[in-house]
Amino acid sequence: MNAQIHPTAALNVRDQFPALPADWHYLDAAATAQKPQAVIDAITNGYARDYATVHRGVYQRSSDMTLAYEAARMATARFLGASSADEVVFTRGATEAINLVAYALPKDGRDRVLLSALEHHSNIVPWQLAGYAIDVCPLTQDGQIDLDAAEKLVTERTRMVSFAHVSNVLGSILDARRAADIAHAKGALLLLDGCQAAPRLTVDVAALGCDFYALSGHKLYGPTGIGVLWGRSALLDSMAPWQGGGSMIDRVTFERTTYAPPPGRFEAGTPHIIGAIGLHAAIDWTLGIGLAAIHAHEGALTRSTREALRQINSVRLFGPDDSPGIVSFVYEGVHPHDVATILDDVGVAIRAGHHCAQPLMEVLGVPATARASFAAHSGADDVEALVEGLGRVKRIFG
């Protein structure tokens, strides 16, 4: 267990994360990101200094908060390369965003959706509940979505192709532009689950060619309870409201209700105002560091980790070598939960389980994996602590 960890990563922002003590190695960013002080300050000020409702009040603070809330929408639109802020719908998370599309998009006589074998449950169950028939695209040997197979699986009955932009288990990156071309060639649409991509890759929905893009704020250094659905304007216009209540209406009578145009049509009730403020701060913080720098930083740590784990005979790695920040593995003969518990005893926090991807576990032939995932605040010392902790696993289990 004397693997040399090469500190090739360049970022040094750990001191901006107050919830990260020096003796704790947080390697679970793929589940949820820690929050930089800039985001914490934005949330604190939003509640302690600036708070008021939005869209309804005529008093000054309400007007100011409405401007801040809509500024968050505009910042999100720029972050995604959207042509208009009206294409950005705030949701509770990517899960709600995908549910919204599954329920509200007209099927237009087509009832099939193409998913891949590596999808998160949040990109499987909503389609089942909405009554779609599911076709499953297999994976390549190195854990990529097999787009050659996808070309054969998309038919005239396929309404939607819905793929993870980056796998939350394998870290594989989808060739989204090709996926869009495959879907569009048969008249289908493409939705991308961007939860793992948005915190580490530059996202340009126009260049990707997708029709919908979903992400969660809490994986992007922002608060929980806020997410984003980006959709093409014409598609959002074609969709009926998913939930009813305040804010999403034009006029209400007991006989008939008319609805607001998107995005308001899909934001029933009082929104997560401070969530949007926090998301804006998270986007500003991420762009201030630079997505290219974050991607390079996490990629270097991923390569160092995979190189070190390959030197441990009992470790089996999953996924491609060019994962942007996620390393899944099993320690042969030891359940991942036991691995994670031992690592926790030495101050290393990883994820263990099926990662809300039970169908993928069946493909991999394991009940669960251990997963280390990196963020902008991660460093070579985190990798060293992980490798040293696995040495303790070996000493305990032999």
Model description:
The chain is α/β, with parallel strands linked by helices and 398 residues long. The protein is built from 13 helices and 15 strands. A hairpin with a 7-residue loop joins β11 and β12.
Shape by Cα distribution: globular
Order of helices and strands: EHHEHEHEHEHEHEEHEEHHEEHEEHEH
Percentage of residues in helical conformation: 25-40%
Runs in which pLDDT lies below 50 for 5 or more consecutive residues are none
Derived structural class: alpha/beta
What is the number of strand segments? 15
Distance between the termini: 13 Å
Gyration radius (Cα, Å) is 22 Å
Per DSSP, what share of the residues sits in E-state strands of 2 or more residues?
15-25%
With helices defined by DSSP (H or I, 4 residues minimum), what is the helix count?
13
The order of strands across the largest sheet is 2-8-7-6-5-3-4
Mean pLDDT: 96
For the sheet with most strands, the description reads:
7 strands, mixed
